[in-house]
Design goal:
Layout: H1 10-28, H2 33-54, H3 66-92, H4 98-125, H5 130-156, H6 159-178, H7 180-207
Helix pairs in contact: 2-3, 2-7, 3-4, 4-5, 5-6, 5-7, 6-7
Length: 208
């Protein structure tokens, strides 16, 4: 009887079971790196443009039309949402039933959340001056993002997603109280830059 026909020892069986469990967890766990990088770039560039437009003292550093800055921000955020949707799809795609239903409902919550934000922004933004109008739009959008990511972390018991949303919520609250320029700076450097650094660190760790 050759080695291939011999029964595995208990130690080898345990090692094989642990290896299979590790591979299963790896397949069912989404790669968070694209999520962090996509949102990081969107916030760093988009809110960076708003920061240059508003300035910390209310005087712009660069003359950028408000419509252009907001279009850049929301265009990049839309792209980041698509990438994040693919990350969430990785969570639910191997499993059918209740998990898939939660993923579908969670996806619709993004649509309804940003639809409500858009109506509120249009309704009240027109009566505000330029800097306050940009603060309204940006703080509302970040509030929706923070709440939905904390909710997503709670639904799928994904700690990194919940913590990500909580950090965004704190930065958004402090920035909104401080003013348009400070809000844009905090979100651009704190949330955007921090998200990019986190994504690069995770990418380096996963390659090891």
């Amino acid at each position: 009887m050759n080695n291939d026909d011999q029964a595995l020892s208990p130690e080898e069986m345990l090692r094989l079971i642990e290896q299979q469990e590790t591979e299963t967890v790896s397949r069912l766990t989404p790669n968070p790196v694209p999520h962090y990088l996509a949102w990081g770039v969107a916030w760093f560039v988009g809110f960076g443009a708003l920061f240059l437009r508003n300035g910390l003292s209310g005087r712009p550093y660069v003359e950028i039309p408000l419509g252009v800055a907001l279009a850049l921000l929301f265009g990049l955020m839309t792209l980041a949402m698509l990438i994040s949707a693919m990350t969430m799809w990785q969570l639910g795609s191997p499993v059918r039933g209740a998990s898939q239903q939660r993923g579908t409902m969670y996806g619709f919550s993004w649509f309804f959340g940003f639809s409500a934000m858009w109506v509120i922004g249009v309704r009240f933004g027109q009566s505000l001056p330029g800097p306050e109008q940009s603060l309204l739009w940006s703080s509302l959008s970040m509030m929706v993002v923070a709440i939905l990511y904390m909710a997503g972390g709670a639904v799928w018991l994904t700690r990194w997603l919940f913590v990500f949303g909580a950090v965004v919520a704190v930065l958004n609250t402090i920035g909104t109280a401080a003013g348009p320029g400070w809000h844009a700076l905090l979100i651009s450097v704190g949330a955007g830059g921090g998200s990019i650094v986190t994504g690069l660190m995770l990418h380096r760790r996963l390659r090891r």
